[in-house]
Amino acid sequence: MDKITIDTEFIKLDSLLKFCGWVDSGAIAKLLIKDGLVKVNGEVEYRRGKKIYPGDQIEYDNEKVIVDKS
Fold first, then answer.
1. Number of structural domains the chain divides into
2. How far apart are the C-alpha atoms of 23 and 56, rounded to whole Å?
3. Which of 11, 24, 40, 67 could join 45 in a cystine, given CB atoms 3.0 to 4.6 angstroms apart?
């Protein structure tokens, strides 16, 4: 599992997908989330604006990252 380091209190889920390099645009992130293809802490998440905090685990397409604070 990879770590993604953020220097803010939180990051929104759609922005995190772009930050990880899993998608090229927010529009693609929106579709993936809407289709239920992204999990947050093991649960399918349908809200693209979901706030992701350090310690949260994100999963998409058999890849996982954990968010860390810098």
1. 1
2. 19
3. 40
